[in-house]
Structure formats: structure tokens, C-alpha cells
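Structure in, sequence out. Go:
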């Protein structure tokens, strides 16, 4: 079941986010940031969780890509995380589809996603849901693997 995240989900969301290996030395700061987003995100954007067996098993966040009023309501960024114990069950695909449907309904024109080039799993997932690569960056300091970073785009 997918539902809107509430502040009561902040611990579970942060716990899943904390499973990420690439958060680096600023891990605490990243976790605090994601917690803060739960209460802050407002329409047309959103924070949703997938619940299974009575607990949060993954989440998707649709948030403004840029703060500028010129593009704020037409461009969004999406971020997706599934509990490592619940992967490969379709949870991620369901969450991303939900966010894209909500973006379409809100008349958002573009949804973007940053993805490490070696993250084949998420690349397959979002490509199968209609995203394509729109830009490529050599690396980013936060990523210890110094992976190339790809910017994917849905044109809705
Ligand atoms: C990437 C990620 C979100 C995918 O979530 P997920 O819930 O495992 O995704 P799904 O289950 O929908 O799809 C994953 C695979 O399982 C398969 N699958 C889906 N439902 C299935 C089912 N019922 N039975 C068997 N396999 C299934 C899919 O076909 C897909 O296969 P593929 O990888 O060979 O293409 C998850 O691995 C994750 O959180 N990764 C770490 C965070 C991350 O990298 N986030 C992206 C940065 S924005």
C-alpha cells in the first residue's frame, strides 16, 4: 500500500536512507535533511511510503528541482529508496510509478533523477518506466566510487 508519509514515518524513512553506503562522512547531516523533508514537502510535490507487513518498506520523494519561481512548479526531482530486505519485490517500481502519475496529475512537465552510472538496478527500473538520460557528469566528491553521474529525465 502506498500512502503519503507523515512525521511518524520519519524514523523508518531515515533508517532506510541510512542503509545507503555512499552517504560518506556527512551521513548524519543527510539523515537530518531527509527527516526535515517529511514535514516540509507540499503540493504539487510529495513524500510517499510503501507499507508492507505493517511497516515502511520503501519511500519516494518528489521535490522541486530548482527553487526559482520560473521553473519551480514545472520541474521536479525524484528520489527512491527501498529497504534492502524488501528489494526485488516490485516495491521500487510501484513507488516510482506512483510519483510519476502524481507529477502528471499536478501538470509537472519534467521529472529528473540523479543516478550513479554503476547503479544498474535503478537505471533499468526508471528506463522501463519511461525515463531517458539527459546529461552526464564525470563524478561527484560524495561518491567514494567516483562513479559517473547520470541525470535522467521524464518528459511528461
Ligand atoms: C533501486 C531500488 C529503488 C529498486 O527497488 P526494488 O523495490 O528492488 O525494485 P523492483 O523490485 O521494483 O525492481 C527490481 C528488480 O526486481 C524485479 N521484480 C519486480 N517485482 C518482482 C517480483 N514480484 N518478483 C521477482 N522479481 C521482481 C524487477 O523486474 C527488477 O529486476 P531487474 O533489476 O533485473 O530489472 C532499490 O534497489 C534501492 O533502494 N536501491 C538503493 C537506493 C538507490 O540506489 N536509489 C536510487 C537513487 S535515486
Amino acid at each position: 500500500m502506498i500512502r503519503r508519509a507523515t512525521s511518524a514515518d520519519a524514523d523508518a524513512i531515515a533508517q532506510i536512507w541510512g542503509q545507503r553506503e555512499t552517504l560518506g562522512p556527512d551521513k548524519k547531516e543527510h539523515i537530518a535533511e531527509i527527516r526535515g523533508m517529511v514535514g516540509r514537502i507540499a503540493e504539487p510535490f510529495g513524500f510517499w511510503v510503501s507499507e508492507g507487513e505493517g511497516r515502511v518498506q520503501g519511500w519516494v520523494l518528489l521535490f522541486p528541482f530548482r527553487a526559482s519561481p520560473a521553473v519551480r512548479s514545472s520541474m521536479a526531482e525524484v528520489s527512491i529508496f527501498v529497504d534492502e530486505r524488501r528489494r526485488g519485490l516490485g516495491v521500487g517500481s510501484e513507488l516510482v510509478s506512483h510519483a510519476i502519475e502524481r507529477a502528471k496529475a499536478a501538470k509537472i512537465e519534467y521529472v529528473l533523477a540523479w543516478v550513479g552510472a554503476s547503479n544498474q538496478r535503478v537505471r533499468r527500473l526508471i528506463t522501463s518506466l519511461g525515463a531517458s538520460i539527459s546529461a552526464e557528469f564525470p563524478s561527484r566528491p560524495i561518491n567514494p566510487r567516483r562513479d559517473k553521474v547520470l541525470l535522467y529525465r521524464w518528459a511528461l
